[in-house]
Structures are given as structure tokens and as C-alpha cells.
Specification:
By secondary structure, the protein is α+β, with helices and mostly antiparallel strands. It is built from ten helices and five strands.
Amino acid sequence: MNDILEPIFRRRAVKVFDPVEIPQEVREQILNAARHAPSSFNMQPYRFYWVQSPAKRKTVAKLCMGQKPAETATALVVAVSDIGSMHATSRGQVEWMRKSGFSDEKIRDYERTAKVGRIIFMPGPFGIFGGLKWSIFRLVNLWKTFGMPPVSRQGIFKWAAKGTSLACQNLMIAAEALGLHSCPMEGFDGRRLAKFLGLSSRHHEIVMVIAIGRKSCDYSETPQWRRPFEATVTVL
């Protein structure tokens, strides 16, 4: 099997881990793989909290309702959608383009695209702008074909969660390829975990918590079942 495909097919949600040290180099490789996931407009609307100190890991595990993967993992990664970072991200890309020798024309093109994106993604106070933009886009869509952009704060968080989830998948595949195992968890006390991490409900939303470590020698995996190929794939 192809070396890239092998970790994808081998990856499983491991429920019990044995203690293992994760070197800084390996940690950075895993997180860098997450950062290189596809991202709409290259906005990268996410932030990862790598929790490895025993005391903080114990607190986060408790907020994950004491699930076995959270209690036994070497590290817990809290994946957070971060819609408050978009302006800083676009400014950072412009600075990078200037230092990398991009032409003035390409930089201006990107700045225009980023400006349009900010206008589209800005819901405004109490969602007023979002409602107005939705009405305009819906009206135009009656005779013109185009994708409906996220215009409400809820829609923007949904958009950001998609990008965050893509990054999470990269993270778990990278961990598998480096000889570690993982378990994504959606069971957690979001309000208390956000408070523990100092997150803002205006800009942040926790998508999942990923337990990372080495699969326990005593842990036996049950055979994996997937829906039949023809039940999930349609070729047109």
C-alpha cells in the first residue's frame, strides 16, 4: 500500500493509552501537519491548544467527562475555531507576500479579495449586516448561480468549523504516521473548557478534543466496519 495511504487506513480511535514521551520535534511535526490542511481563502480559522502538563491535562480530562482516552493520553489537543484571527491572518499574508517578492499587482489583488471577504463575513452588530446581506444574496441568487457565503455569526462559525475539522484530520493522520495514536472526542463541557482556556464566546468555539498517545498493550481493537462502498459513493 502507498506509504501515505497506510496511516489513513490504519488510524483508529484508540480508547486506552500507555504512558509515552512525545518529543518536541514530533509534537511540532504533528501540529505543522495540521497547519498545512486546506483552508478557504487561506484564512486558517483555528487555534490548537496542546495540553501536556499533568495538572492541566487532568483538568481537561475531567472536563471531557473523565473519558478513558482523555484520562490516559499523553497529550490532549483542544481544537478551536477562531474567527477573530481572520484580519490578522490577511495582514500577515500581505506582509509575507511583500517579503517574498510578489509583484505589487498580485499584492493589490489579494488585498482586494481580503477586503471583499471581510465585508462578506462581517455580520455587524446584532447580526444586522448579516440579515441584509442574506436578503441581497438570496435575491441575486434567483437569477444568478453562485454559492451562498456565510453571513451570520452562526454561519461563520460553521464555516470555520469545517476548516478546523480538516486540520484535525491532518493532525491525527500525522500522529499515526509518526507511530502515535489518537482519539477525537466531542464529549466535553464546552463552557467550562472555554473558560479554562480563556476563550471568548464572540470569537472562539471548541470543535473537538483529540487525545494523543501510544495505544495500550492491553487494549484490543474490535474489527472495523464501514458502510459498503456503493452506499457512500455515487459516480455520475
